[in-house]
Amino acid sequence: LQRLTLFTLGMFTFWTMLCDKLHISFCFYREYYFVNTSLSWCDALTYCQNNYTNLVSIQSQSQSNQILSLAQNTFKDAAWVGLSRTDSQNWQWSDGSNVTYTNWERDLFCAAINVDGTWTDFTCSTNFYFICYLVFMEIENKIILYVSYPI
Predict the structure, then answer these.
(1) What does UniProt give as the signal peptide span (predicted)?
(2) Distances (CA, A) of 64 to 68, 133, 147
(3) With the CA atoms of 12, 17, 18 and 21 taken in that order, what torsion angle do they form, in degrees rounded to the nearest 10?
(4) From CA 44, how far away is CA 6, in angstroms rounded?
């Protein structure tokens, strides 16, 4: 019987190394915070970085749906997310994560999520509510026992 240890990182799981000793597992969790103060994108980014982790980055339709369901009746028009243009063609998340999902109309330099879930870009000086996230880590020592049965 070959024994493997399951490590988790956030929503990702993968198998690695023989399970011959105690291993440490790291779990990352993300909480969303809707800030009902209207700020420019730059000021919202600074606020989130000083008080949480960053402006929210959205990597999938399911994550977008989760955020919108939590935000029901929180904002009326749009709320800043951490997406902005680095130049006329390229978009970047403020936390450095890859842009793997988009859902919007486009033309300006900072992105906001609308109440219907679509995204709109605005001039970065426009004031909107905004969405921050906080990442925290939990460390667990785990011993995983495996039992083999004859086939």
Answers:
(1) 1-19
(2) 6, 13, 41
(3) -90
(4) 38
Q: Judge contact between 65 and 56, C-beta under 8 A.
A: no
Site of tokens 């240890």: 5
Read off the pLDDT of residues 8-29 as tens digits, 9 standing for 90 and up.
334 333 344 444 444 455 556 7
Domain 31-134 superfamily per CATH: Mannose-Binding Protein A, subunit A (3.10.100.10)
Please tell me the least confidently modeled range out of 8-22, 26-40, 69-83, 118-132: 8-22
Sequence ranges of the domains in the chain? 31-134
What pLDDT score was predicted for residue 90? 83
Is 81's pLDDT higher than 70?
Answer: yes
Q: E strand or H helix at 81, and its extent?
A: strand 78-85
